[in-house]
Design brief:
Belongs to the LysR transcriptional regulatory family. The protein has eleven helices and twelve strands. The chain is of the alpha/beta class. A hairpin with a 2-residue loop joins strand 1 and strand 2.
């Protein structure tokens, strides 16, 4: 059965709790809330009595949350976000708004649509601020759950119940290599592909990718000579080496090194890449957020 607490919890106490969890420092949380440090400490003491838990333990850099604090933070943060959405103004004026949006994405996605997006913003919403942060796709659902970001864009699928997605565009993999590569002279076979030296783009740092999973099913293994964590590096490396790589077609097409590369059909059956926009459903009816989603969708429709 769920735990019961005898002390009614003031909503303002949860706002304090959320700020301390975000900052992990009572002084910084007090500054963020425009409160005094003693007032924040008093609020935390009331919360400790309410939850019958220390919630935060002092450490040299600030405070460390207890398991109970970690457990309740997501529902508290979600609830506060829902309340703010209900009480915020419904009208959103792009031309005058100075809202800041935080978007998690990788350099491949950013290279495709950042320029046309900024061009649209400069005309339609010159005071809107965008903050791009790196994403491995794996961390995106948690960042959305914790309200750390407004949107995530990538090869994403909704792994949590309150996450929404919209497909922006599709892509496919090709095998990239320099134009003078020995394998560029004829149709690439699976045997040639496996015996070549490979470059792997891995955002998470994992030493294998989807190609290796497919090869293992066929009892095959390739040599990965180099791994990088940025899509933009791959075309430059391929253009000046004997490495080959399974790479997103669009990342090569828009690269300054495109003319130096030969693109072969990947000798493996693989699924297309569905690039999706993901957001938490607490933002579903947010006017500013809806405007941004529509703008991004329109920009990506012309890629």
């Amino acid at each position: 059965m769920p735990e019961k607490y005898d002390i009614a919890i003031d909503l303002n106490l949860l706002v304090v709790f959320d700020a301390v969890m975000a900052e992990l420092n009572v002084t910084r949380a007090a500054d963020k809330l425009s409160m005094t440090q003693p007032a924040v400490s008093k609020a935390l003491n009331r919360l400790r009595r309410a939850f019958n838990d220390d919630l935060f333990i002092k450490i040299p850099s600030g405070v460390k949350p207890t398991p109970k604090a970690i457990e309740i933070w997501t529902p508290v943060r979600n609830g506060l976000a829902d309340i703010r959405q209900v009480t915020q103004p419904i009208v959103f004026e792009p031309a005058t708004s100075s809202t800041t949006f935080t978007i998690a994405l990788n350099d491949y996605i950013a290279s495709l649509f950042a320029v046309p997006l900024v061009q649209r913003l400069s005309k339609e919403a010159p005071h809107i601020n965008l903050r791009f942060i790196p994403s491995t796709n794996i961390d995106a659902p948690d960042l959305l759950e914790q309200s750390e970001i407004d949107l995530a864009i990538g090869a994403l699928s909704a792994s949590k119940p309150r996450l929404q997605t919209q497909t922006l565009f599709t892509d496919h993999y090709v095998c990239g290599m320099r134009k003078g590569h020995p394998l560029a002279k004829r149709k690439l076979t699976l045997d040639q592909f496996v015996r070549a030296d490979h470059l792997l783009i891995t955002l998470t740092g994992e030493p294998t990718g989807f190609v290796d999973r497919i090869l293992r099913e066929q009892g095959l293994q390739r040599r990965i000579a180099l791994t990088v964590n940025q899509f933009a590096l791959a075309p430059a490396i391929l253009a000046d080496s004997n490495l080959i790589a399974a790479i997103n077609y669009r990342s090569v097409k828009h690269s300054p090194f495109a003319k130096s590369l030969h693109l072969a059909e990947l000798p493996l059956d693989h699924d297309p890449i569905h690039v999706r926009m993901m957001w938490h459903d607490r933002k579903q009816r947010d006017a500013a957020h809806g405007w941004l989603r529509l703008l991004i969708s329109e920009v990506c429709s012309h890629l």
